[in-house]
Every structure is written in structure tokens, then in C-alpha cells.
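Worked Example 4.2. Consider the chain below.
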Amino acid sequence: MKAVVITSPGDPEVLQLQEVEEPEIKDDEVLIKTEAAALNRGDIYQRQGFYPPPEGASTFPGLECSGIIEAVGENVSRWKVGDKVCALLSGGGYAEKVAVPAGQVLPVPSGVSLSDAASLPEVACTVWSTVFTMSGLCPGETLLIHGGSSGIGTFAIQIAKFKGAKVFVTAGDERKLAFCNDLGADLCINYKTEDFVVRVKEETEGKGVDVILDCVGAAYLQRNLDCLNVDGRLFIIGSISGFVAELNIAAMFAKRLSIQAAALRTRSVEEKASIVKEVEKNVWPAIMSGKVKPVVPQRFPLGEAAEAHRLMESGNHIGKILLIA
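Applying the procedure from the previous section yields the following C-alpha cells:
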């Protein structure tokens, strides 16, 4: 089969489509003939040499995919050959076939194309596990999403609105902000021309938001705490601005704030299966109702993975980017 290989750590051109051995499945795994794979920021970090796959995982990039099941392991009972599925991966999505634990597989939701389904597992599992399970966002509360036009952001807007929350977002240009507004965001802040802390305080009568989903990291740490409400929760899922920050913890004491951070890829197979189960129960109905939709404006052939990475790194995209196998 063909797969995108990271020939050495570096710039996008190190991604090369090569002929490789087909994966062998274990007793609790399925083999998926890939229809599409979606890009994630972790793929870029892996390509650069900063985010190696977990032990035993495929060395090819790709944290989510969709396709048709081609084979099932001896211990797999739910899935059968021919099923149309999407899956959360530890790696290997940038390939014509991928082996994945059966517990990380989801059915393609009705109303979603097989290729577009590749854009769902990583964002759905990330948003559900962070915003809802760990941060406990409730109906009537307010969620602030940094990077509202990203794959994570566009999904989080929709599912948070579906669950009855108010949603604020930040983004870097008016085109992206308009897109977020169309998805249902209640307040769209241009972080390049406005101070998001000031705007949040204005819109909440000085109280602040209840939950923040942050991909920026160090540069926003203190400012995030400054715009949280009493009992507010900050969840950090990325750190594009760096990992080291100075923090005045006085606000944490005064407002009983909490800070959490997590990466999905490094969780155990059992933890991932549990999250996937919760996502199918709580998120898939919203997708099948049409209230939450994939946002996939850009698609590239598998052999153009380098160009797809360049687009993601440019920051000019909205939503998810797909590679079509």
C-alpha cells in the first residue's frame, strides 16, 4: 500500500508518498481501507520531530480517518467487513490502510459523507473530553474558544450551542470571525485589534466566562485567568505560543479557578475507547440531527500532504483539511 512517510524531521517537503508494508491487525483491531484522513496540529509537530507516536503505534502521521472495514480481528464482535466507519488513531491515517483498536471506531453518522466523516473523531473526542467531561460546561454557561475558526473551534462552537451554552470566540481576521458567527457564536473578537479580556468583561457585566478552551498556551495564561468567572475552568489543549509563563495565582484563590491540560494521543487504549463511547452517545445524535456539521472547505490528494501541511501552517484555512486516499 501507499503511505505518507516522514523521511526526516523538517519542513513539509519531508513528507513523501511511498510504497510500504500493509499493517497487520491484532485480535482486538480492525483494518480500515482509508477513504480520507484529516490533518491535525499534532501531525505538524510529529513531522518536525517534536511529537513522536506512542510506543507501538504507526510511525506514519494521521490521527483520524474514515473508510471501509476490510478485516476484523478474532475478538471483534461489533464491526464487520464492509462497514463504513471513522476512527480515532494514534497514528497511521496518512495511508491507504490503517489498523486501529475496535474501541476507537465510530459509525459514519447518517447525513455525513464517508470522506467528511474523517474530520470528526479527533475534534469530537477532544471537545467532549475537555469542555464537557473534564471542565463540565453546563447549559446557560459561557464558553470562550481561542482559535474559533480552527477544526477544534468550529466543532466546539456547534456542539456547545447545541448543548445550550453561550459561545465567545477569538480569531485573527474578519473572514474567520464572520464564519464563526454564521456557525452560531454569540461574540466574535478579533484578537489582533481588540483586547479579548476587555471585551469579555464588557459582555458579561464584569463577571467573565465559565470555561475557556485554549490552544495558545503561555502567552494567554494570565489573561485567560483574568477573564474567568468565579469557579471558572481553563482547559489548555495546545501551546503554540510556548510552554513557559509567569502566573499570579491570586486570581485563582479569589475566584476558585482551575487549570487543566491534556493531550488525546497519549491516553491509553482503554481511555480512548471510553471517550469514543461517550462521544457516540452524546455527540453523534447532534451530528445526525444536522445541528452539528463537519466543516471541510479544503481537500488534497494523499500525495499532496506537503501542500496540505503548508496550508495548515499558514493559518489561512478554516475548519478541517482532508487528505483523500
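The longest helix spans residues 121-134. The chain has a mean pLDDT of 97. Compare this with Example 4.1 before moving on.
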